[in-house]
Amino acid sequence: MAQEKTRILVVDDDKGITQSLSVLLQSEGYRTDAAHTVKEAIEKSFENDYNLAILDIKLPDGDGTSILKTLHEISPKTLKIMLTGYPTLGNSVNSLNEGADAYLIKPVDVEKLLTTIKSKIEEQKSAEIATEESIAVFLQNRAKKLLAEK
Questions:
Q1: 24: Cβ contacts below 8 Å, ≥ 6 apart
Q2: What separation in angstroms does the CA of 89 have from each of 34, 100, 113, 129, 150?
Q3: Number of domains present in the structure of the chain
Q4: Closest Cα to residue 77, out of 105, 107, 45, 47?
Q5: pLDDT tens figures, 19-58
Q6: Which end of the chain is less congested by CB atoms within 10 angstroms, N or C?
Q7: For residues 44 and 97, is the Cβ–Cβ distance under 8 A?
Q8: Does the model's pTM come out above 0.90?
Q9: CB of 83 within 8 A of CB of 15?
Q10: b/e map of 68-92 (b: 16 or more CB within 10 Å)?
Q11: Domain containing 96 — which CATH number?
């Protein structure tokens, strides 16, 4: 299964939610880790490479949106989905302005969550392929130019 190598960090102070989401995602073939605080999420992001992070906005030691910028600095490729039980226009605008790739409301519709994850992962893979192809073309052109100069 292609998802096997896809690693997702689930961040929520409610251990029942992290456990439920982890079981759901693992049943879809994803590898998961859980964190329950901003600090723990940042520590795990330094230790592991994640394709995607699902972040709660309200955490015991800070706001989940505060992780967005740090995650981008640690791992720019990590996609970030905000998940909140406190939906406000301010939260959604702030989340998207801080770099969230999606914003979903609790209780989350499982199909919508899975569709969003699959869509974002596909976008990520397409971008990686495009980057690799661009690098290959650049190197080929560079090699041709160097050979022509000889």
A1: 110, 113, 114
A2: 27, 14, 20, 35, 61
A3: 1
A4: 45
A5: 999 999 999 999 999 999 999 999 999 999 999 999 998 8
A6: C
A7: no
A8: no
A9: no
A10: beebeeebeebbbbbbbeeeeeebb
A11: 3.40.50.2300
User: Could you please report the per-residue DSSP string of 53-113?
Assistant: EEEESEETTEETHHHHHHHHHH-TT-EEEEEESS--HHHHHHHHHTT-SEEEESSPPHHHH
Kindly report, residue by residue over 83-110, the tens digit of the pLDDT: 888 777 777 777 877 878 999 888 889 9
Strand-pairing partners, residue 33, are 9
Amino acid at 55: L
**β-strands 52-56, 79-84: how paired?**
parallel
Tell me how far apart the alpha carbons of residues 77 and 61 are, in angstroms, rounded to a whole number. Answer: 25
Domain of 65 in residue numbering reads as: 2-149
DSSP 3-59: GGG-EEEEE-S-HHHHHHHHHHHHHTT-EEEEESSHHHHHHHHHHS--SEEEEESEE
Amino acid at 33: D
The alpha carbon torsion through 48, 51, 52, 53 (nearest 10 deg) reads: 10
Residue 71's nearest CA partner among 92, 87, 97, 49 is 49
H or E element at residue 148: helix 110-149
